[in-house]
Amino acid sequence: MNLEWGEDIISENIPLIEDKNYYCHLVRTAKPDPEKDNFFLIHGFLSSGIHFISILPYLIKHYNVFIPDTIGMGLSSRPKIEFSSPIDCEEYFLKIYHLIIESIFFENKFNIKKEYYLCGHSLGGFIASRYMLKYPKGIKKVLLLSPCGITDYHIKNTDMDPESSSCIFCIKITFPSLFWPCKLRVQSFYNCCCFHNIVKRVYGNYIFKIDEKEIKKNKDGSKFKVDENKMRYIIKKLAILSLDYPNDLYDCMCYIFAVPPPAVLLPVEVKLANTNTKEIFFVFGKDDFMDKTGAYRLSKFNPERYKYFTLSYGGHSFALVNPRELADIIREFF
Q1: What's this model's pTM, rounded to 2 decimal places?
Q2: What is the second-level CATH architecture of the domain 9-333?
Q3: Of 220 and 22, which is predicted with more confidence?
Q4: Can you list the positions of beta strands (E) in 272-312?
């Protein structure tokens, strides 16, 4: 990806204050520049910081970049956690990210600006929106990439992006939603010896599938050229890694989501509408399965504060396959 490990980016483990046996893995700018703005990115569920690998060459050129692996995921620690409610789950993730952000921007560790741009993808977008509401200090703007948990389904006004495909989405989640209340997940079948190899093959090839038609290489050999074989290898490895995530992490999702994403028990649409928040940018892929309704409504409700974009191509993981268009949005507004 035209990045020199150790020159442009490095990784380190950030110990958690409560228990230094646990840590969060962090990929960051090797030599943070006090003159540059800062970008802090949060990945989604069953993922890791590797999700931002395609956009990283652009970001690292213009910003000090910090990409942690969420606790329990990626290369971060896997502590055993007892959850009992949706609020418990949310508060746990917010607490961990607050520790990380405080250590990076407010303890003068890197001698950089105390302000930063906050970005989150999918579940990371939900966490980022909740984090902004609780800990707004230092946040300049917020970039939410296909965030879950925005739409409040109790709102009767159903204004929707004309390109939304909610009917198709409803069909897709009907079957898995039957298993959700019983806390039966892909991992449950994976751990059953009878289905182990079948789930491993299907999960790696389907859940994290990248459509060949979506991968566009730049003929000029620019930094956004994607090596298809390398990308597929990385994503498949990530898929298999996610199957070994601890049970309590999956249980946490059962408390947050009413059915598989994007329906959450505590959506943020009303809070965002009634709070004087930072400027928020919602970005979705053209073929994104995530529900866009809440984001679209907010952009119509207050277009000065909330801005809404649909990329010309790409699904839920458009940051991997369409980094050029995402970089154009960042270049214009951040």
Answers
A1: 0.84
A2: 3-Layer(aba) Sandwich (3.40)
A3: 22
A4: 279-284, 306-310
